[in-house]
Specification:
Phosphatidylinositol Transfer Protein Sec14p; Helicase, Ruva Protein, domain 3; alpha/beta; globular; about 300 residues; about 45% helix
Length: about 300
């Protein structure tokens, strides 16, 4: 209408959808890293750098601080070698009291991460493992996501996949399970992700949420930035239709309204099935198919 200005379309900051300012910001950040010998590994391509730029809204100083902290953290924790060197031998036992993991892909080709927090027995978790070992498990899982799962999904989809779908299932629990220990574990995992692996969540569905959860969410969302909050959907028990619009029924576990059981593996949370099963990581970057060792052109 007359007198009203149309709202400017904001570029997302993803490759292929950047404004001129964002493109200049990427060039400036890339030049800064090169001139200061901060990150010369080929894994740090433009897609990788853009995740940090988007996380800090292309603010150069904030992005530099975040990335420098990230590089220091990787060096201090030997993260470059954690896939090969860290053995989380208690994983199968842990999954009985803390069911979580990646399971197949959604209709967009994104890897699906599922966590059954309603089935979590927090006291049993720390009888099986320690906080330190659990943090290393999270880090190793993130590294496998970036170096194997995303590249494998990209190879299958025929285009770049760099974000995933997360489903948090609260079925089987009540507000009583949300103890200080559980909160601490959630915050621990969230901090590793937000500080060192930004911009990898495409969407999150929290399903089977009890009525009282909305009150908890009102508090929790205050610690989450607005951009991330918009990616999160809270649903009660009537979520199956929404999930089936995102995920093929054969890829969605039965306990979430799909048809997959992974019975031969002891359940979907223990199978870890996905296109990544057909690939292996190559050095210094990239993946290749296991059966023919033919390297793909997808590095991430």
């Amino acid at each position: 209408m007359w007198g009203k200005k149309s709202k400017a379309i904001e570029n997302t900051g993803f490759m292929g959808d950047m404004s001129e300012d964002q493109e200049r910001g990427l060039e400036e950040f890339r030049t800064y890293l090169k001139n200061n010998n901060i990150a010369d590994h080929p894994q740090y391509d433009d897609y990788y750098l853009l995740r940090f730029l988007r996380a800090r809204k292309f603010d150069q100083e904030k992005t530099k601080l975040m990335f420098n902290n990230f590089i220091t953290w990787r060096r201090d924790n030997d993260v470059d070698n954690i896939i090969d060197n860290y053995q989380f031998s208690e994983i199968n036992e842990l999954l009985n009291v803390y069911p979580h993991g990646y399971h197949k892909i959604d209709k967009k080709g994104r890897p699906i991460y599922i966590e059954r927090q309603g089935k979590m027995k927090i006291d049993e978790v720390f009888k099986i493992t320690t906080e330190e070992r659990l943090v290393k498990h999270y880090i190793q899982s993130y590294e496998l996501l970036l170096k194997l799962r995303f590249p494998a999904c990209s190879a299958v989809a025929g285009h770049r996949i760099e974000q995933g779908l997360s489903i948090i299932d609260l079925n089987g629990g009540s507000m009583k399970i949300l103890t200080k220990k559980v909160y601490a574990l959630i915050q621990l995992a969230a901090k590793v992700g937000s500080d060192y692996y930004p911009e990898i969540m495409g969407q999150m569905y929290i399903v089977n949420a009890p009525m009282l959860f909305t009150g908890v969410w009102a508090i929790v969302k205050g610690f989450i930035d607005e951009k991330t909050r918009k990616k999160i959907t809270i649903a009660g028990g009537k979520f199956q239709k929404d999930l089936l619009e995102l995920v093929d029924e054969n890829n969605l576990p039965e306990f979430l309204g799909g048809k997959c059981t992974c019975a031969e593996y002891g359940g979907c949370m223990k199978s870890g099935l996905g296109p990544w099963d057909d690939y292996e990581i190559t050095q210094p970057v990239g993946i290749r198919r296991k059966q023919d060792n033919e390297e793909t052109k997808t590095n991430h």
